[in-house]
Amino acid sequence: MTDPDLGGMDLTVVAVADSEPYVRLSAAMFDALPGHGHTVGLAVVRSPITPAPAQLRRAVADSGLAGRRVPVLTLPELRRLVRRRVPDVVMLNCTARVADALGDILPTGRRRPVVVTTLPGPALPAGEHEWLHRARADLLVLHSLREVAAFSELGEKLGVGTGVALAGLPLPAARERRRGRPHRVVFAAQDRAPGTARQRERILEALADLAESRPDLEVVVCPGERRTEAPGGDYAGLWRGLVTAGRVHDHTVLFRPGPVADQLDRARGLVTVGSPAALEALALDVPVIILGDVGEDPGATVFQDGGVFGTLDDLRALRFRAPYPAWARENHFHPPQREDWTRHLAALVHRARLGDLPARPALLDAGVHRRARRRVLADLGAAPSLLRQGPRAQWSAP
User: Fold this and answer.
1) Annotated domain spans of the chain
2) InterPro entries under this entry (predicted)?
C-alpha cells in the first residue's frame, strides 16, 4: 500500500482518461488513496480513441469502481464537471497531447487544484515529448524506480518543475493464476512492431512449427484490439496468406481476440516483441521471450538487461525466461513500501489549500504547438470561443 500521509484529509478528486490503459490506471490510483472519505469521479473524454463500453467495464472490473458506469464526456461537459465539483485534485491521465490540451479547461489562480498526470507502464525510454506535453502538471506519477530516475534526470535537463513520484502498476498477483498443467503458449501481438509483413510472417511460421512439433500444447495468437492500421499487416490476414501458400497448416495456431490476460491462465510462456502484456505475464510467474531477431521495438527498451530476450529458435524450443531479480526490483516489481506518490500528493494538496501552488505555464508556446493544441481541442469538441482565445484562455475558479 502507499503512504498514509494524507493526514485524514478528505479529498475530491476528478480523473480524466482517454483510453483503456488510462482508465485502469485511474481506478488503481483511486484505490491507492489512503482513507475512506474521499469523493472520486472518473470520466473519459470523447475522442477518436474512446474505449468501447465493454472495454470501460473491463478496465474497472478489479477496482473499487467495479459496476459503476464510466461516463464519456465532451470537452465542454468536462469543463462543467470541474466547475461543479471544484476538486482538490485533477488527474489528467491521458495521452500526451490530450493531457496538454486539457490543461486549457482547468482553473487557474491561487486556489487552483493540484494537477496530476501519469503514464502507463512500461514508459521507457523517457522522452521529451511526454515531458513537454505534461509540464503544466504538478506531479508526474510513474511505475518503476528506473522510470522515476530516467524522467527525473530528463526533467531536470529540460527545466521542468513538475515533481516525479512512484506508484504501483495494477498488475495481477501470482496467486490469481489458476493452478493446473501449463499447456498454452501465447503470442501477444502489437500494432507498431514488427514493422514489415515478412517479420510478422516469420513469427507466425515459428508458432506453426511449435504447434506441429508439440501437439500437446495450445498455441494462441492474441491479435489485440487495433485502433490503427498495423504497418506490417494484421496477423489474421497474414496467416490466411500463409495457409493459402501452403507454408503453414490451418488450425494449428488459434487466434483469440480480447485481452491477453484472458489467455495467461495455465500459460507455459508468453512471447512478444515488447508488449506491456509481458509485465502481466511476469506478475503471474509466467516466463516470457522478448523477441530480439524480428526487428526493433522501442517498447522493448524496458526489458534490456532483464535476461528475457530470445529468438524464434528459442520459441521453437520453448526456452522461456524469468527475469533477473535485480532487474525486476528496478522495473515495476519494486517493494510496495517504495511507492511515495500519495506523500507527494499530500504535500501538494496542503500547498493548494494555502494558495501556495506555483503557476505552471505551458512549455510548448511556439506557433506550431499552439496550432497543434487547437487541433486537439477541436477533436475533443472545444467551443469555438476557446479555440479563438487560444491556450492561455483559462477560467478562474469560483
Assistant:
1) 12-171+335-389, 174-330
2) DUF6716
